[in-house]
Amino acid sequence: MLAACALFAALCAGFPASALQLITESEAALPADHAHDRGILRGPTIVIVAPSPDAGTIRSPLNLRIKFQSHGGAAINVDSVLLTYVKKPAVDLTQRIQRFIAPTGIDVENAEVPPGTHTLRVNVTDSDGRTSRTDFTFTVSK
Question: What is the model's pLDDT at position 22?
């Protein structure tokens, strides 16, 4: 019986129970938006934990982990968090991940993303109205 359970667990390890479709194939086919704006921001710190910036090419489904850190006694306004797929036109992914947003960040396991190079933008505002934004890029293998 124990051997059967171990075999079942090993077979299921490669197949997530319920993966979230983070980016669709049609969204991935949209042209990239390379427009950038510049400014000095004093808002919350945004740290991309996963996919790690130095991870190289990764596989889908992937874990999406982003940490928020407020400053000066301000709190993170979770209703202000925006996750955008940087394309033309931009694709708002916020509703897809809404239930994974907390004052400490975003934590999504088993996010489905098609093969290719993808750039996401995270915006967050604190209770003092200060906003921060960061873009990050990752590549998913076929």
Answer: 87
